[in-house]
Design a protein that fits this description.
This protein is of the alpha/beta class. The chain is 20% helix and 24% strand. It has one domain: Purple Acid Phosphatase, chain A, domain 2 (4-Layer Sandwich).
């Protein structure tokens, strides 16, 4: 099993990094290998022909696509999907080859454990239309936070990898000094996760950058193989 991570795809805007020219390693992969998109996947946006084409495009890939929800997703559509159990955590199957990893879950893949928590605050939400280009479920709620902590407690607050869409609020000034730090519900909860959980590495997207600060890795155009 091989596992790759990448940042936002905003289908169709940033998805070209997953074509065979940019990601030639996929030619040797199978459906038992995984590509994980760290939020703002964008596949479930509109129920139209264009996005149907992209679902087929991902289904035809040799690997299985896993994804976290970001802030720029149609959360009403995601929430309407049936919930299933998969490799230790809760998921939504878009298809057998496209799987949404729900918030606050812990999955075991390739002998490693992954804690997932999607969602983030949209700083441009005032420019978006509720139910059309913005959804209030973009950030987690207290039920998802409680479930996350219960799942982490069952693993003695220790996992191999943490996968999120955004990062802890406390990381913003040091890792992104040129950004305007805007505290969020999700960022504050991730502050708590960072203080209470032991982990090898933390990967996230959202910031449209590729850089590392200690255990924290933000991915955008980069595709990292971790297993």
């Amino acid at each position: 099993m091989k596992i790759f991570l990448t940042g936002d795809t905003h289908i169709p805007i940033d998805v070209k990094k997953l074509n065979t020219k940019s990601f030639p390693e996929q030619k040797a992969l199978t459906k038992d290998d995984y590509l994980i998109v760290l939020g703002d996947f964008g596949l479930l946006w509109k129920k139209d022909k264009e996005y149907g084409w992209w679902r087929q495009w991902f289904n035809n890939k040799p690997f299985t696509t896993l994804w976290l929800d970001g802030n720029h997703e149609n959360h009403d559509w995601i929430d309407s999907l049936p919930v299933s159990e998969w490799n230790g955590g809760k998921v939504n199957f878009v298809s057998p080859s496209i799987i949404h990893l729900m918030r606050g879950q812990i999955f075991t893949l390739g002998g490693s454990t992954f804690f997932t928590y999607g969602g983030a605050l949209s700083i441009d939400k005032e420019c978006r239309i509720p139910g059309i280009s913005w959804w209030a479920r973009e950030e987690g709620n207290y039920l998802e936070e409680y479930e996350a902590m219960d799942n982490l407690a069952a693993h003695n607050f220790q996992v191999d990898y943490i996968l999120t869409h955004t990062c802890p609020d406390k990381l913003l000034p040091s890792m992104f000094p040129k950004s305007i730090p805007i505290p969020s519900t999700t960022g504050r909860f991730l502050d708590h996760i960072a203080e209470t959980v032991s982990y090898k590495a933390w990967y996230f997207g959202h910031m449209h950058e590729d850089k590392q600060d200690g255990k924290f890795h933000v991915l955008y155009q980069t595709i990292n193989q971790i297993i």
